[in-house]
Amino acid sequence: MKAIKKVLFTTVSASLIVINSIAQWNAIDVPTKNHLNAIAFTEETTGWIVGNKGTMLYRSGNSWLEYPAITDEKLNSVCLLSKTEGWAVGARGTILHLKGSQWQKIESPTKEELHTVCFSNNGNGYAVGNNGTFLSYRNGIWEMTETRTPWHFYAIALNNGTPMIAGGRENLTVPIMDVIYRNSYSFTKIFDPGYVEIAGMASPEIDIVWAVGKPGTIFRKDWTGWQRIEIEGMLPALTNIFFTGKTEGITVGHGGTIMTYTNESGWQRDESPVNNKLNGSYIVGNKYYVVGNNGTVLVRTRNTIPPEGESSVSSPKLISTYPNPASDILNIIIPDMEIPSGTVTVLDSWGKVLFKKDFDYINEGFPDKIITTGFSDGLYIVNITSGARHVASGKFIVKL
After folding, report:
1. Structural domain of residue 127, as residue ranges?
2. Which of 36, 119, 194, 229 has the fewest Cβ atoms nearer than 10 Å?
3. What is the pTM of this model?
């Protein structure tokens, strides 16, 4: 008879950030050492990067080439509507428009620095910047709406087509605001992040919004409201966040910080090959891309190849749980898995890692126990991984 090893889990108060040493980020040679601030794609072979001193790079085959400069101003953000249409914004109110294969400079209603530009599916566009600057693009015209605020706006997220804006300013608390249009724009405060400067936001689905900022902070909103994702240890300031769908995302920041998110693993901190500030990120095809200071462009594959000797698993096996809902103790039945060792992780519905336990082996079919008295009511996910493999997964509900 095989020996049986019981694993008992107890609660912890902070999210555990796992260092993902398997992820291999590689630097790409590009024809500039200027700081690069944003990256966007329409498909794997069509992408643009913008940066300081009017730098614009475009994807050609497997290379990045420099587009002839049409401005000397710093460019902070780029948004692509299609292969032949896009927008970029930057310092001194700079607005650039891609039409066909050519970029051109557009008359701007402001001289304030613009930090982010984005467009909704209905063709309406938005840009935000310093000293409360809010621009809207409707019927082919950029117009400025007075917000009467001293704040700098750095970030926009489109939640079901409705803009949500945020930012910061030293020694001020700057709220995240909904922007509503009914013949004119109005601004409604919806969340106070405290003294956190929100630098980036992403809305992967209706009623789900992620926000990151300085000091290193991650917020998440769903239909129940906003929650700060507690992180164990210090996290450098974060500058950008991007999601593709609701299950996979990336955030980057100072000191070469790169963190990736999946529903199965929550937030993991990748080993980074650089220590300079990173400013932009994107997910397209099977690749993650990151750009940053000193001409930094990094790439890695989304589906990491398992280490030699480990085979990939096409889909995780199902973990059975009982009783479900649980009130004090949950039993988990481990499926038949031929793995010598691995890790059991429990996440809440926010993707926050609440429990993490390594094991040497788990006896086939043995029901381990999780004490749930310290949980709040809600849905939880339990995962088993071995190396780079996601081996098994299950869900359970706690109802105290």
Report:
1. 23-301
2. 194
3. 0.76
